[in-house]
């Protein structure tokens, strides 16, 4: 996929449409610009190239997602699972890979429901290993259990070709996790997915981080920009003495207004790079995924309602964004010979 297409996808997924709600606005293009300047090329292109190079048929890929915590987000939110599943769907169809979803136990039911809506059966390991169009769900431990040991064991057990973090919170330099509005949480509330990033890094396994705020794993590539741009970037409200930005880096960082959309852009990139347009899920699957995710307990992360919405945007908007991504893909594959 060339940089022209990556640029178009990057720009489409960075259209911010948050409503005034106390959640910081007018920041996505600034976070994107920082990440883009650091990376030097379109972020969708870089993430696509990483996966197409690293992932071979039969390879396992770990996909970590799941934002929020009880009581307001008891089973997570709708931003994250759909993007994670879009990537898994593309990896399965176009690259013959084996996607494994990881999250706090409380978030796994909506993730599994979303995967099943995309045609990926969620199975136990023996069947998962034997059959295509399947996925596996693994709960991530939280403190005080041995979450660091688990991370190392997961890398050892699955030998993943890549590890991808979608809307997955990472700790700041004080070891605390934060919401975008500056509230802090410790490792008994949020899974330490950063341990998985560290374990992958030690094993030389490539990583991708996707986020829309600066507190998600991957943004460690642009910590100073997050500190500068975000309202609580230098000083949170939990008193830990740090800001909301994470220090956890990945090899590639993708920034989007809504993290799911970066997953869709990456699926589009995979579809183009492999000449498998069906690797980008269709509009029917998009609609079914959102309904299934919400039905299984996920809520809109902005208004907290268990409904077909994502970060304050409607189901129709998800379809509209997907429609445009499909158009970018189809036009990229069908150059037109103009007669005039
Ligand atoms: Zn704090």
Automatic annotation (TrEMBL):
InterPro entries registered for this protein in UniProt: GLUCM_C
Protein name, entry field: D-glutamate cyclase-like C-terminal domain-containing protein
Domain (D-glutamate cyclase-like C-terminal) ranges: 25-321
